[in-house]
Write a structure and sequence with these properties.
This protein is of the alpha+beta class and 500 residues long. Helix content is 35%, strand content 25%. It has a 6-stranded antiparallel sheet with strand order 13-12-11-16-15-14, with helices on both faces.
């Protein structure tokens, strides 16, 4: 059934069928000649118009200047139940699509729309064929004839709840892209940002428009592969079942910073296609760096506390205090450093403590500071337990200004690093300091017991590890206290044995 009456009414609402000027519709112009396939007066024009109206997502009806229904599409039939055959030709809505009590008000609004410029929006209740009522939102506007006078009226309507759902969706989208307290990035099928909200732009260290169309590699310094892999997976398989935490590097005015973004991904598909056609991915993320760092620090503190406790229990079972020194060192190395060294001050204690009377005596004020290697971990091959060395008492050839010498001299911790240099230069830096060649980070902690500096413990990390931080220094000092106590006890026991 056609959605409109025959061509007489259609022609009345369409453009003038009179002859066109010579410069319109002539040979070579893009406008079809009068009566052509695109013209309502053409034999196929009414069918084309009916097909267009029936394909609309919104319900549509039209009236002529006398208020007679001339058009009624399938969406109007779906909402109200009245077919085009039942609707077309009726005068107004009164008595069938509108209750008699409401007819005057509804028709008054429609007539006002015919006289007013532009579109008029109203809400009123229509009656379905089975007697129910549907609240609809309408947009009405006049259809003008060739002379500019109103020739009729069209009225597009939809159920209010459907319109409200659409408005909510639009409002939600606008809010997410404007005022959300988390980052929202819409990525196209080429994995390039298409829309970026204000929060995401700040997180990326760029402007909202500056980020559009750029590869993610230009916006992130680290974590690009992980993010792109997630986006590609979502495009192919759909949204993941849970959130993902991703560490990325972003550029800031203070330099590059690592951030942890808790991310959710949604595949965007076109609602107009018969089969889902991916338009891109919605990436929603929140910065959880501080919380994540807090969790990691708490986990590290628990682990290190457990290691100290286990080391103390194991060292208490050692008959030889020197063995307890290696026990403390081995437990401390787990997850903390790659290598470790313990150097003992020759002649008892550091020169600044020459007045000491503890085990080992003091050092003459003018005597040079020398250190003897007494414990070390394997520097080649795989990891292994630390071993006691230095029985020959030969001092280590440390150059002036060596971090271990500085640590003993100031009785405090010292951190050192090779910095951002080439691998060859880093190896040379480690060799000159008498450390394994793969060392790039070092932390020296003084061995203090009974108010004396007995030596220094040095923890070393390779290139794949991060530099030592302040929290690492505190842990190294805790370990150093326990090693110093065991070392002091070993010397005290040895002196008593010698006196005996």
């Amino acid at each position: 059934m056609s959605a409109s009456r025959h061509s007489g009414t259609t022609d009345e609402l369409g453009p003038d069928d009179g002859p066109e000027p010579p410069d319109r519709g002539g040979a070579g112009s893009g406008t079809p000649p009068p009566g052509g396939p695109g013209h309502p007066g053409h034999p196929g024009g009414a069918d084309l118009l009916a097909a267009l109206l029936d394909g609309m997502d919104a319900a549509l009806c039209a009236f002529d200047a006398d208020g007679v229904v001339t058009h009624w599409n399938r969406e109007a039939e779906r909402i109200l139940g009245w077919t085009a055959a039942e609707a077309v030709g009726r005068h107004g809505f009164a008595g069938w699509a509108v209750r008699e009590a409401d007819a005057e008000e509804v028709e008054g609004r429609l007539r006002a729309a015919m006289r007013a410029p532009g579109r008029q929006v109203h809400e009123f209740a229509l009656v379905t064929k089975d007697g129910g009522r549907v609240l609809v939102r309408t947009q009405s506007a006049a259809v003008r004839g060739p002379d500019g006078t109103p020739a009729g009226l069209y009225c597009a309507f939809s159920e209010v709840h459907a319109q409200i759902d659409l408005e909510r969706s639009i409002a939600l989208s606008e809010a997410l892209l404007e005022d959300a307290s988390w980052g929202v990035v819409l990525v196209d099928a080429d994995l390039r940002p298409a829309v970026v909200n204000a929060h995401a732009a700040r997180a990326l260290g760029t402007g909202r428009t500056a980020a559009l169309g750029r590869p993610l590699g230009e916006l992130l310094t680290q974590g690009v592969e992980e993010v792109e892999n997630a986006l590609t997976h979502v495009l192919a398989e759909g949204a993941p079942p849970a959130l993902a935490e991703m560490w990325v590097g972003v550029r800031t005015p203070d330099g590059e910073k690592r951030r942890c973004w808790r991310s959710g991904f949604l595949r965007l598909a076109s609602p107009l296609a018969e089969e889902p056609v991916p338009l891109g991915v919605g990436w929603v993320f929140q910065d959880v760096t501080e919380a994540k760092q807090g969790e990691q620090e708490a986990s590290v503190l628990r682990f290190r506390g457990n290691q100290l406790h286990r080391a103390a229990r194991a060292a208490a079972e050692c008959e030889d205090p020197a063995e307890a020194v290696t026990v403390h060192l081995d437990f401390a190395l787990a997850g903390f450093a790659d290598h470790a060294l313990i150097d003992r001050v020759t002649g008892g204690t550091a020169p600044s403590e020459a007045g000491g009377t503890g085990a080992g005596g003091g050092r003459p004020p003018g005597a040079p500071l020398r250190l003897v290697r007494i414990v070390e971990t394997p520097s080649g091959g795989g990891p292994g337990p630390s071993t006691l060395t230095g029985r020959a008492g030969i001092p280590v050839r440390y150059a002036d200004g060596h971090p271990a010498l500085q640590c003993v001299a100031r009785a405090g911790s010292v951190r050192a690093g090779a910095g951002s240099v080439a691998p060859d230069q880093a190896r040379e830096w480690a060799r000159t300091r008498q450390w394994p060649e793969d060392t790039v980070h070092a932390l020296c902690a003084a061995l203090r017991s009974r108010g004396r500096t007995l030596g220094v413990v040095t923890f070393l990390r390779g290139r794949g590890r991060s530099p030592f931080e302040r929290s690492d220094t505190a842990y190294a000092e805790d370990v150093a206290v326990r090693i110093a106590a065991a070392l002091d006890l070993a010397e005290a026991v040895g002196d008593r044995g010698g006196d005996a």
